[in-house]
Amino acid sequence: MSRPQCSRCLRPTAHCLCPLIPSLDSRTRVLLLQHPSEVNHALNTARLAALGLNKAQLVVGEVFEDLPTLLNPPGYQARLLFPADDAQPLQAYAPGDQPLLLVVPDGTWRKARKLLHLNPLLAALPRVTLAEGAVSRYRLRKAPGPGALSTVEAIVQALQVLEAPTSFEPLLKPFEALIEGQIAAMGDEVFQRNHGDGRLG
Fold first, then answer.
1. Residue 11, in any domain of the structure
2. ω before 36 within 30° of 0 (cis)?
3. Number of domains in the chain
4. Residue 122: which domain range?
C-alpha cells in the first residue's frame, strides 16, 4: 500500500517540503525539461526549483512537440544550460540586457543528451555554462566529475550570477531538508559507510 503523498511536492505527507519552498521572483525565466525517468525519483530537485520560482515551468517528456512556443516567450532570449566547448560562461545582466529564458534539461547526463538528440531545436540553442569549481551539497550520490551539481543547485548558481546581488539561496532549503531526511532514513552508520565524510568524490 502506498503512503499518502503531497500532491504539490510529491513527497510522502509526513515529509512534505512545502513549508520550506519559497516563492521567489526572478528576472530570468527558467524552463525545466524533465526526462520521465526523473519524475518519481526520491530527490526530484527540478520539481523543487519549479515550485520555488515564480517564473519557472516544468515540462516532462522526451519529445516536446510545443518546443517552438516554449522556447520563444516574448521579451526573452533562450539559452541552454548545458556544457559544450563553445558554451559561454554566464555573466551578470548589464543594464538594458534582454532577460534570458534559461532552458535546463533534467536527468542523468545520458538522459539529458538523449533529450537534446530527440529535440534538434533544443540542441541548436546557444549554450551557457556555470563557472568551474562549484561544490555540490548533494551528499548522497557520487558526482560524475568536479562541478557536477543537482538541477536545483545549478539553477541557483546560474541565477546568483545573472541577477547578482540577489540571493536565491532560499531555493536550497527544501533540497537540504530532503538530503538530511534521506541521511536520517538510512542511518548514520550506513551513510558513513557508503558516503565517507559526506563529500562528493
1. no
2. no
3. 1
4. 24-195
Contacts of residues 109-112 at CB distance under 8 Å and 24 or more positions apart, as own/partner, are: 109/144, 111/35, 111/37, 111/38, 112/35, 112/82
* Residue 5 within any structural domain of the chain: no
CA gap 17, 12 in Å, rounded: 9
Tell me whether residue 9 is in a domain. no
Please give the DSSP secondary-structure letter assigned to residue 168. Answer: -
CATH number for the domain spanning 146: value is: 3.40.1280
Within-domain flag for 113: yes
Mean pLDDT in consecutive groups of 10 residues from the start of the chain, 201 residues: 83 91 97 93 89 97 96 97 93 95 94 95 95 58 55 95 96 91 69 47 28
Strand order in the sheet with 56-60: 56-60, 29-34, 100-106, 77-81, 127-129, 88-89
What pTM was estimated for this model as a whole?
Answer: 0.86
